[in-house]
Amino acid sequence: MRKAVILAGGEGTRLRPLTNNIPKAMVPVLNRPFLEHVVKYLKRHGIGEIILAVGKSHRKIEDTFADGAQLGVKIIYSVEEFALGTAGAVKNAGRFLDDSFVVLNGDVFSDVDLNAMIQWHKENAAMVTIALTPVDNPTVYGIVETDNRGRVKGFVEKPGWDRVTTNMVNAGIYVVEPGTLEYIVADSYSMFERDVFPMLIARGCPVYGYPSQGYWIDIGTPQNYLKLHHDLLYRNLGSGIQFEGKSFVHPSAHVAGPVLIGEGCVISENVVVRGPAALGAGCWIGKEAEIEGAILWCDCRVSKGARLRNCVLASGCCVEEESEIPDGCVLGERALVAKGQKLWPGVKI
Fold it and tell me: Which residues are marked as active site?
């Protein structure tokens, strides 16, 4: 099994304003496009041919990744003229799929062991295998009910607590046999979760769940996007500081990891940066500014005495002197926070 389909055609509505000007697949995670992390994940599991199911605004993706050679894979683009849903997008890419293949939702970051999942799929002679992941609150997801052999019995979408029989939910990662495509109507909006999987089960087709305790997160909201950064910074850097190129850090500045600093950054006198935090390339941090738990994209300017905590700033933002950006705030590209302005927690600009 060498092929995978990444569903990267979503508009990223829940992630706005970060996705106002770029596709969701291109939002930076640790200063690299999110999609790059997904491609490398697939490559680590021996999958070298990747079909990107994309919408009309795919040019920024294609300009960055081209044919995938720079990442050591082959990338093919399957373009949707209109939204087709998860299953419809895979059907649209059907001409590239002649053997078992993997499907990933384009907003999921996971370290589920794909090789073990594929082996489970083969051992059960499954038509579809769904990766399952445990969550604390299954009422906000769709739970997947299985028998004691792992065969899926049914789905309950966003159940009340009185209907919760398991905390295992659909992780948005599937192993699929090409025969599944016969159950999907061409050129029509169709969802695996609501339309295809229940139909397969009703017809007695072997659909299995693969339980995993691996890391999993849906980055579709700013809160989860920030959490993913914090988790990866701790995992990858511990309490360390990583520079991606030449930057200037004034001797009086205090930087406490984990902190990722992109190339060409300037961290001025008496600045405090407390991790987990990431600065994109070309960021300028003025005197006595304080940054804690914040994620800054490239070319952001934070002026003297400004304070940022557990927030996200897209590229080109400007935070003027003595301003405060507290927990949960999200600034879209080139947003300006005026001198002395103090935002409310969770504000989006």
Answer: 158
Cα–Cα distance between 78 and 54 in angstroms, integer?
6
Burial of 92 (0-12, 13-18, 19+ CB in 10 A): buried
Structure tokens at 53: 């199911």
Reading the block at residue 22, the tokens are 């770029």
Name the nearest CA neighbour of 169 among 206, 138, 128: 138
Of 285, 317, 281, 318, which is closest to residue 304 (Cα–Cα)?
285
Query: Mind listing the domains of the chain with CATH numbers?
Result: 3-218 (3.90.550.10), 223-337 (2.160.10.10)
User: Around Cβ 69, how many Cβ atoms within 10 Å?
Assistant: 10
Q: Rounded to 5 degrees, what angle do the CA atoms 117, 122, 124 make?
A: 95
Q: What is the dihedral of CA 117, 113, 170, 110, to 10 degrees?
A: -160
Whole-prediction pTM: 0.91
**Partner residues linked to 312 by β-bridges:** 295, 330
- Asked if 100 contacts 175 with a C-beta cutoff of 8 angstroms, the reply is yes
Over the stretch 305-329, which tens digit does the pLDDT of each residue have?
A: 999 999 999 999 999 999 999 999 9
Six-digit token string for 124: 């059960």
Task: Record the tokens describing residue 189, joined without a space.
Answer: 């909006």
CA gap 302, 322 in Å, rounded: 10
Per-residue confidence (pLDDT) for residue 1, from 0 to 100 = 57
- Using only C-alpha atoms, the chain has a radius of gyration, in whole angstroms, of 22
Q: CA 157 to CA 176: how far, in whole Å?
A: 22
pLDDT for residue 88 = 92
> Does residue 112 contact residue 120 with C-beta atoms inside 8 Å?
no
